[in-house]
Each structure stands twice: as structure tokens, then as C-alpha cells.
């Protein structure tokens, strides 16, 4: 296989264009190393090139201990090359080996592309895991374990025509905590919790049929899904058992929360359970204050930063729901149907340790006027907002909270507000879109999503509105990079700190929201919006890939910064001191800024506006 064909098979070369691939090939040298030859020496001279294994294998050695073995297509030396620092490991030929060497200038240019940033960002996220145990990263990062590896036995099944008594006997005999139920259509599931909560506590007969108490249709996950994603799903949906399927869709077995806890992932599960068990507001508040410690555990475990943000939002949801339950217990049953909405970052499930409350209420008083029932919901919202604040989640400084009457309306009033925001030419309308069009129903019996989603999808036909919201997404630009320990900005000189949120994360969030609205989508999570825009042809897959990795890298930097502040007993913020960033992190962030700027240029061209 010739050089270009070989490189094209592996990242980051698999996503670059033909012209750049030709430049890489022209700058590539070929080296041969016999078994045992040292290619780069730990604590030696910095690497002058990026190495690609063409044939053979290369050992990474830390103080004479082999910690990883690189095979064909894998890359090394780039970290040392970019940072101009000594290699962290000795790189030694495991057998007779042929290497491709890509010279510094071309390698630096390559790593600045969208695919290069994706590769660099993934390398950054893996660095601690590989340094500790490169041969088996799952031993130090259980969150990156495929969930299929946790399946211990085939599922135990039962007919839907069986009785509860037979189900209990089968569970006892097989020593399992769940049964898959063979229903008329898709399968259902019955768990030991169901027997306690739906049969014993409800006083049902042991002769009740299991089809009357089972959960159906059952939610399943594929066996190659990472534990981190499965954990977030189970937390979000309050599930304690999840069937795992193979590539053909057949159920291999059932994974339980106990299986996940065995991987030392107790922090988020136990925190959510303890919140749900809180008997008073004070108890719930006390548990809520444990959130920073739980986040620290996830960050230490090198969990994907987007998954961490998801788990934070799930915990905040649990706090909100339990406080609503306690508030209803204190103030009495609601006088009419209602729905509590999360807005902004909580709606997107993208929350860090520095977050605030953005919430609202939809109230359906039926034939009565809103004024007749609103005093009750004002008290309920005030109760929840107060105790969320006591838990460490402050109220929105702009007053976007349900205790504020401006954020409690009937469905018809909310629909009118959405139409007015889309029709307004003022900045206020754009600001409200940035908060309110990112919404998610958290609790309450009133179903409002179908109507709200239909309304949001109409934005794709409102050209003036799209131009305005798009222009808002272009108002702030990312930094240009770093000079020593300062952050450089276009036109405004240097800053002592990097605002990781406003200078990066929010810019991608705004771009994703704009493209989602243009595409007629009602999705609210940033990465899903970007992928949805690619599916509709609004964004290229290459641009989405680059923005996604930039988003993950920015989030990782944000979370690590905030956890460090909390552990030093300081209030979390988004102001990252550049002196705390290593050379590789700086390079990755600089490339992320460049990709964001390119995406903004592309949007400006679509809108026909200057920058």
C-alpha cells in the first residue's frame, strides 16, 4: 500500500482533503528501526517530528515498564513536538519497525485542522488513563467500559400470562432481581422493586398477572455503549435495570445499578437516591451540597466532560422534583395541571459547578383566569427556588425563575410570548430566545412539549428572526491564542484570564442553536443540534466533527478548573489562568478557537453579514 492510501486509513489523516494529504506525503520521511532500538528517550531531547507506525510495533516505556504498545497507524511524538518538552516515555521498537516521520511544520498545520483537533482533543482526554495503564484503560477509567462487558448471564424470561407469585418464585430460584416478560409485542420487564411497590404496597393479590404490573416497552442499550452514557441514561430516567442488546437486537442480559456501583461509580447514583429519599427541605439541601464532590469524582475518573455535564443536570433535576414534592406536601395539591420547565443550560443538560437557576412554569387553569390559581404556584415556585439556592444553585441574576410572575403563564400566553420574541427586532427578544428556546419539561402532569416544539420549528420560516438570532451568535469572537500567560483578543488586546464559557463554550452553543432553528429542529442539546444540522445539510460533517471536539475540550478545561477551585475552598468560576495550562492544552485550545472562528465566518457568509 502506498503512503497516501495507508495514511488515509487512520485519524487524523482520514478527514483531510487531497491537497493537504499531498503536502503531508511530500513532507514524510521513512525510517527503519530494529527490534530494541530507542526512537525517543524519556527525559531526552524533544521530538522534532510526528511519528506514524507503518509496520511493526512501538513500546511506550516508563522507567523500564512497558505501559503501552502502538501498532500500525498509531501516532506518537506529537505531544513532545508541540510542547517542545522532553518525551514523557521512552519510545522503543518492539520488533523490526517501519515509521513515517511527518516534519514539524506540516504536523503542526495538520493538528490545527478539524480532524487534527479531534485527534488532539481525544489524546488529551486519554492522557491520564494511558499514563496510568495504557494496555487496559478500563482498569483506571471504568466509565469507558463497554456496558456489554458487565453482562454476567443471559436474561431470565417469563410469559406475560404468568402470575406475580410465579414471578417471585422464579426470581428467588434464579437469584435475579428482574425478569424479561414475553408480551404480545415488544418485551416488558418486572423487577423486585415492582413486586414491592406495585404489588405488596398496593395490596394486590399474588395471582395478579405480571402483564398488569410490568414496564413496557422496555428501554434497551447496545452492548458497545460506554458505561458513562448508560449511567447518565439510568439516572435521567430513574431506571435500576437496563437490558443490553447485541448488534442484531437480541437481548444479551440485564445490567443493574449494582453492577455499575461495583465499578466504583457510586457517587452519582447514591447522591440521586439520597436526594429522592430526603424527608425535609433541609435534608434535600444537605444532599444537594454534595454535588461538587460527586463531580470531582467523575472528573478524576476522566469521564467524558459532556457526560459529566449531563449527570450534573440529572442531579439538579432530582433536586427540583423532590423539592416540588415537598412543596406540594406543604402547600397542598395544585389546583390545576402544570409543568415545571428547565431553561438554558439545565434544559440542554450542559451544567458545570458554576451554574444558576433558569426555570419557569406553564399553568393550565382551564376555564378559570390565571389570577385565580397563580398565588398557589407563586408560593410553590418560591419554595423550590429558595431551597435550590440553599443547595448551592443561585437564582438567575436576570430574574428568569418561576417565582417571578414574568415566568409563569398559561400555554396560550407562552405561545404568544414565543411569537412575540420571534417577531421583535430588539436585543431583548434575542436574549429571551437564548434562554427560552432551550427548554425541557422536568415535572408536572401538563404535557406541553408537542405544542412548544411545533412552535419552535416554525422559526425556520422566519427569515428576519433567523438573521437576528444568527447575528447575535456572531457578536462575540473567540480569543486568538496565548502570549506567555495572557489571552489575546482581536481588537481588545490581552486579558489575564480566559473566560472559558463566554470565550468558547457559549459561542458553540449559540452556533448550534442558530443552525438548529434554521433546520426546523426542536432539539435542545448542543451536540445533537450540530449533528442534526449536518443531517439537513446546513453544516458539513467535517465542521461538526471539529466543533464537537472543540466543545469537549473546552468543557474538560472548564470542569478541571472548577473542581480545582472547589478543592482549594474557592468559589468556582469560568476564569482560567493561562499559567495553569500546559503547552499541549494551549495548542488544543488555540485550535479550538480557530475552528469556532471559521464556523462563525461560515454563518456570516450564509446570513450575508460582515464581521
CATH superfamily of the largest domain: Beta Polymerase, domain 2
CATH topology of the largest domain: Beta Polymerase, domain 2
Helical/strand content category: alpha+beta
Distance between the termini: 46 Å
Protein architecture, described:
This protein has 611 residues and is α+β, with helices and mostly antiparallel strands. It has four domains: 3-144, Jelly Rolls, CATH 2.60.120.10; 147-261, CBS-domain (Roll); 266-458, Beta Polymerase, domain 2 (2-Layer Sandwich); 468-607, Four Helix Bundle (Hemerythrin (Met), subunit A) (Up-down Bundle), CATH 1.20.120. Helices cover 47% and strands 16% of the residues. The chain contains 23 helices and 23 strands. The strands form seven sheets. The chain has a four-stranded antiparallel sheet with strand order 1-8-3-6. The chain has a four-stranded antiparallel sheet with strand order 2-7-4-5, covered by helices on one side. The protein has a four-stranded mixed sheet with strand order 17-16-15-18. Helix 12 crosses helix 22 (541-567). The longest helix has 27 residues, at 305-331.
